[in-house]
Design brief:
The protein contains 14 helices and 13 strands. Strand 8, helix 8 and strand 9 form a beta-alpha-beta unit. Helix 1 packs across helix 14, helix 8 crosses helix 12 and helix 11 packs across helix 13.
Amino acid sequence: MNGKPLRVLHVLGELKPSGAETMLVAAAPLFQAEGLMLEVLSTGASTGPHAKRFEAAGYRLHHIPFSRSPGFFFKVRRLMRAGQYDVIHLHVEAANFWYGLIARSVRPPVVLRTIHNTFAFSGNLRQRRGIQRRLLHWLGVRHVSISASVRDTELRHYRLPTTLVWNWYDSKRFTATSPEARLAARAGFGLAENEFVIASIGNCSQVKNHTAIIQAMAMLPAEQRPVYLHAGIEEAGEPERELARQLGVADWIRFLGGVDDVLPLLQAADAYVMPSIYEGFGIAAIEALATGLPALFSDVAGLRDFRADFPHLVYTGTGAGEVAAGLQTLMHLPDTYKRDIQQRYPAIARQRFGMERGTHEYLALYREGTLAARSSRGEAHA
């Protein structure tokens, strides 16, 4: 690149501690070490609880609250044009077609859109999104899938070819849990050594299916129930806590709310549980596997992708009874399986989904597109 830095604008919604945001913040030092100048546009009603982390990581932050009006899109285009970006990287599904058109209209070398979930729309919406996706592809927007499930969904539902770049996790922080770290974490949560502890991490939308875990707890005999560490901000009225009270299992569940640092929670747990209705990839899942935890996953898109790489995973349906049976299996895994998991999972996670791999693959896409654009304009040696 002859030493010329790349200016990159990431377009997101409200900046929350979820998949794309977590990845971009964690990888900022790696991108910056390669000469990237990082900026982010938040289009949420507010910048969001993760905004300060973006700024602390070195991103220049812009905020234009989304509205379905020409004025909003004019403001977005003005920012994209004034920034003279080499790469405009789109991460949103809502209005993604219009962001793509605007980005192409200012003629940056690279417009790239990452698809962060399995958007299996139906009916007229499926037809409309298919036309929009293929038109953006024809106009030169490169689409990236974060998992095999997302890639297959886009091809099957919309006939859209995508580039597969697996999501990554912060492989510098989430590593194998040492016995000392486990003891310290369990002491921090006031857990006894003989208690079997499960954990879940994520927002409390219906898609995450936390209610199935709570109902499954009620199906188990009291003397066999694990302690459940529940990390996530509940919806209005705290319906999951109310369900736990109604079912008589509130004493076994620690509702922790939003947790800034989930690593101690994973270090304290004996197993991780994620019975989602669907996922795009599940970064929280790979973080748990990277610490060496056994795991229960629902057999759905975005989670079944892990089956080929990680032995001894427990897969279930999404119903409470199936989750209850899966919990019983988790709690009775043979010791040989547990040792194998502790020894192998962290290395597998780092090799397949480590941060260095993912950032290098995106850097290759950025540079490939930028070099091609500069060469077409005769700027390759400018």
